[in-house]
Amino acid sequence: MPSVVQVNDLRKRYGEIEAVRGISFQVESGEVFGLLGPNGAGKTTTVEILEGLRKADGGSALVAGVNVFTDPSEVKRRIGVQLQASAFPENLTAKETVDFFATCYDLDVDALALLRLVELQERAGQRQEKLSGGQRQRLSIATALVNSPQILFLDEPTTGLDPQARRNLWDLIRGIKGRGTTVFLTTHYLDEAEILCDRVAIMDEGRIVALDPPRKLIDDLLARGFTKPVLQQQANLEDVFLDLTGHELRDT
Ligand code: ATP
Questions:
Q1: 245 versus 193: which is more confidently predicted?
Q2: How far apart are the C-alpha atoms of 74 and 71, rounded to whole Å?
Q3: Per the structure, how many domains does the chain have?
Q4: Does residue 252 fall inside a structural domain?
Q5: For residues 24 and 9, is the Cβ–Cβ distance under 8 A?
Q6: 56 is a domain residue
Q7: Residue 41 alpha carbon to ligand 1 centre in Å
Q8: Domain that holds residue 86
Q9: What is the mean pLDDT of residues 143-158?
Q10: Residue nearest to atom 30 of ligand 1 (CA)
Q11: What is the CATH number of the domain that holds 21?
Q12: What is the pTM of this model?
């Protein structure tokens, strides 16, 4: 299987700022790949270049087999990008929103099937303003899937969600991966990356400083002699919350 994303020596500068300093990596078909890093590391710049939204200064990038530099429009047709639900046209129901995006791609899709996939079939006729934060995120993922993309880009998908809604979204992302769609995730939540990602790239100051499965990165750290000063407790407040309120789907 060829890589879905192939990036080689990618560079981008904004005036004096070297936002991306010659990074190279590949995303394999079917994996959940995480791009992590502190604020200003260059993640958004990198992702927007891969989505065909921003021009790079050097290097090369192939996404879904298409050269991002020379054919950004074709890249956009082949990928799914989760938009913030606040960017959706107002006054549309969940089903109309999915239909609207399908029309933008000039596609005829089974909107209800997509809503079923994200467990929003019961909300098909409801306007977005009536949806919870978790439901809006799931709706935005449904819209990102209208063109059956080879790769789905998710930018901070669980920011602002409560623990149950986050876990529901994690299950959904696993389900999308289970259907064979590659997922490219950026997140600030390291627990999320550890649980969901097959491999993570850690970016800092425009460079990739590590790229491996999370478990390997942790094992390597331990092999270097790292120990935590305080033994981690066996449960935390989030575990209490979930134990008392349940793990099941509750943001519907
Ligand atoms: P965050 O997690 O805060 O979103 P990031 O890792 O996504 O950060 P980028 O947004 O790619 O990082 O920014 C990388 C660097 O490039 C930062 O120093 C940022 O200030 C700078 N930068 C980003 N976009 C622009 C722009 N349009 N013009 C000038 N500088 C920019």
A1: 193
A2: 6
A3: 1
A4: no
A5: yes
A6: yes
A7: 7
A8: 3-245
A9: 95
A10: 14
A11: 3.40.50.300
A12: 0.90
* Residues in contact with ligand 1 (CB, 6 Å cut-off): 14, 17, 19, 37, 39-45
Residue at token pair 């919870």? 132
In angstroms, the CA 242 to CA 249 distance is 12
Amino acid at 123: R
Over residues 78-110, the pLDDT tens digits come to 999 998 777 788 789 999 999 999 998 889 999
CA of 205 to the centre of ligand 1 (A): 10
Residue that is written with structure tokens 């029309």 in the block: 103
Q: Is residue 250 part of a domain?
A: no
Q: Which two tokens stand for residue 9?
A: 């020596």
pLDDT band at 56 (very low <50, low <70, confident <90, very high): very high
* 42 alpha carbon – ligand 1 mean position (Å): 6
pLDDT tens-digit profile of 165-222?
Answer: 999 999 999 999 999 999 999 998 999 999 999 999 999 999 999 999 999 999 999 8
Please tell me the distance from the alpha carbon of residue 174 to that of residue 110, in angstroms, as a whole number: 21
Distance CA(115)–CA(124), nearest Å, equals 7
Pocket test for ligand 1, best of 20, 39, 202 (most atoms within 8 A of CB): 39
Task: Determine the pLDDT at residue 246.
Answer: 76
Q: Which two tokens stand for residue 23?
A: 């990074």
Q: Are strands 182-186 and 151-155 parallel, antiparallel or unpaired?
A: parallel
